[in-house]
Amino acid sequence: MTDQKYSELAIEKIAKTKINDVDFDNINFGRKFTDHMFYCDFIDGAWQQPKIVPYQPMTLEPSARALHYGQAVFEGMKAYKDDNGNAFLFRPEDNHRRINISAARLAMPEFPKEYFMEGLTTLMKMDKDWIKPGVGNSLYVRPFMFAIDPAIAAAPSEAYRFMIICSPAKAYYTSKIRVLFSEKYSRSADGGVGYAKAAGNYAAQFYPTGLAQKRGYQQIIWTDAKTHEFLEEAGTMNIFFRVNDTLLTAPISDRILDGITRKSVIQLAEDSNIPVEVRRVTVSEIKEAATNGSLKEIFGAGTAAVISPISAFEHGGEVFEIPDTENSYALRLKKQLLDIQHNLSEDKHGWRYEVK
Ligand SMILES: *Cc1c(COP(=O)(O)O)cnc(C)c1O
């Protein structure tokens, strides 16, 4: 796509904002959308004119290949506002890079960075009132791409749509969660698509996660498909274990998503001299650490919940409770991240991206 000629972003504004219909104090995550959306179609081998239009339903051929073969990828990121009304994104170029990594794995075209950044920042400016100040408030931004070619042969589509929609959010999973270490089902396999934010990865988790939820566990910690002995990640979060004062997390692989929160947490931990070991973590060492009291914390890290402390896990029919710890790394790292995201502290790694 390097020889693509860029066409100018076309903008159609909504006649009247819907913002007054939204109760920002009682937000049901992901159900309300802002006034505008961005889209751009890939047709005849080229990205067409990108557009921002009022958020609205769209028409799609029943034969659109995304519906049959799951050629669909997405991203998740957030916009924040400080008390002076300045809006920020967090490492958005990493989301751009990652959606193209996901797209490549699903035989989809790359989306050009110029279109992505311009569409994203223009949309943020147009819907800026939807980003509420205050730590915990944010605007969840969902870029995604899917196959729209009306043809049901099992082959890659020739036409795609790239979109960005936005939904106001409060921090969710406010209380600690209980998790199940997977012993039967798997999220991803060697050589598979686990590292991609491919739509089907999430569909495949709903059934086993539903079974876990019936037993009182909000999430599953996925283990490697081959042996179920290595702890990998949660469904939408990477996972950290604190044993004594050291943080452990699995290395990125073709089975594990390269989370932006994960790599930010690793950097912040290193900045405050917390030892971090990025290596394979076994179920048996964590059970042993829980038994002998050296397991101090487990937490998930991902854009949606930022950091989710975990209070218990089950494996092999046994439940292990993790007592609250003083000096929680999870709470400290969460505060550091939120402070950077909301422009309340110095941003020494250049992660904040001001929308202006
Ligand atoms: C999105 C996601 C994460 C978290 O990534 P962030 O960039 O931190 O939001 C972790 N694991 C999976 C499987 C994911 O889909």
UniProtKB/TrEMBL annotation:
InterPro entries: Aminotrans_IV, Aminotrans_IV_CS, Aminotransferase-like, B_amino_transII, BCAT-like_C, BCAT-like_N, BCAT_family. Pathway: Amino-acid biosynthesis; L-isoleucine biosynthesis; L-isoleucine from 2-oxobutanoate: step 4/4; Amino-acid biosynthesis; L-leucine biosynthesis; L-leucine from 3-methyl-2-oxobutanoate: step 4/4; Amino-acid biosynthesis; L-valine biosynthesis; L-valine from pyruvate: step 4/4. Its EC number is 2.6.1.42. It holds the Pfam family Aminotran_4. Its cofactor is pyridoxal 5'-phosphate. CDD domains: BCAT_beta_family. It comes from the Bacteria. PROSITE patterns: AA_TRANSFER_CLASS_4. Keywords: Amino-acid biosynthesis, Aminotransferase, Branched-chain amino acid biosynthesis, Oxidoreductase, Pyridoxal phosphate, Transferase. It catalyses: L-leucine + 2-oxoglutarate = 4-methyl-2-oxopentanoate + L-glutamate; L-valine + 2-oxoglutarate = 3-methyl-2-oxobutanoate + L-glutamate; L-isoleucine + 2-oxoglutarate = (S)-3-methyl-2-oxopentanoate + L-glutamate. GO terms for molecular function: branched-chain-amino-acid transaminase activity; oxidoreductase activity. It is an enzyme of class 2 (transferase). Transmembrane segments: none annotated. Belongs to the class-IV pyridoxal-phosphate-dependent aminotransferase family. NCBIfam families: ilvE_II (TIGR01123), PRK13357.1 (NF009897). Acts on leucine, isoleucine and valine. This is Branched-chain-amino-acid aminotransferase. It comes from Bizionia sediminis.
